[in-house]
Amino acid sequence: MGVPLLQLKGVSRTYDRREVLHRIDLSLGAGECVALLGHNGSGKSTLLRIAAARDRPTTGTVTFDGLPMDENDPRVRARVAVVGDTAACYPDLTVREHLQLVAVAHGVEGAAEWIDHVLAERLLSGHAHALPSALSSGQLQSLLLASALVRPRDLLLLDEPEQRLDPGARRRLADLITAETDEGVGVLLVTHHAELARSVASRVLVLREGRIVADGTPEDVLAGPDAAGDSWLAGIESEAK
């Protein structure tokens, strides 16, 4: 089986005596997509931040390719891409300039042609010279995805990337994630969207109050009832932004 690309062991996180995550174990291999579902406040985004080394666990360990995950490690910065909040955009850089900055930072060869390709793939070619303030919320989300696609990556961490996307854009997102895993990229996906998880994930984990309460194939988890006989999905999608 080899060393997992990403592994969390016994990860807990406490803020001001409030336990947000409780002893989470999670492993993800190359070419695998694991989807995390759960209600708002269940700990999904906290878990993703810890997986990306943007937050530290109170207990437990996080490793990337067998070594401690450290956001400042050049090896991690070169191989791990994170798509999170649209606030990460620079207000005075155009769409193309955002992608140029990422490409230069990662030493991408043939960056101009690759940027053109990514802009077309994300349907942003007509907005290449626009500032973030001129973009719709869905276009901003596409810019964040494009920024991840212009750089090398072995691990892709996605925090609710379907938010603000219309149905057509969500289908393109599903195609993108499938293409990534086909290329051997590991994907950790936080989502409220059951159909997206069903179409791209090899495993689905459901978080409730900081604990994993279901872990299995999409078919088993998304179709099965919880301990109270209700669907794991009850109310989750209605909380999406």
Structure commentary:
- Helix 6 links the parallel strand 7 and strand 8.
- Helix content is 32%, strand content 25%.
- The termini are far apart.
- It has helices at residues 44-51, 74-79, 95-105, 111-121, 137-149, 167-182, 194-200, 218-223, and strands at residues 6-15, 18-28, 33-38, 59-64, 67-68, 80-83, 155-159, 186-190, 203-208, 211-216.
- The strands form two sheets. Strands 6-7-8-3-9-10 form a six-stranded mixed sheet, sandwiched between helices.
- The chain has one domain: P-loop containing nucleotide triphosphate hydrolases (Rossmann fold).
- Helix 3 (95-105) crosses helix 4 and helix 3 packs parallel to helix 5 (137-149).
SSE topology string: EEEHEEHEHHHEHEHEEH
Task: Look at the structure and name the CATH superfamily.
Answer: P-loop containing nucleotide triphosphate hydrolases
Terminal CA distance reads 38 Å
Overall pLDDT metric: 90
CATH class bucket: Alpha Beta
Which class best fits the helix and strand makeup?
alpha/beta
Summarize the structure.
The protein is of the alpha/beta class and 241 residues long. The chain contains 8 helices and 10 strands.
Task: Note the topology.
Elements: E1 6-15, E2 18-28, E3 33-38, H1 44-51, E4 59-64, E5 67-68, H2 74-79, E6 80-83, H3 95-105, H4 111-121, H5 137-149, E7 155-159, H6 167-182, E8 186-190, H7 194-200, E9 203-208, E10 211-216, H8 218-223
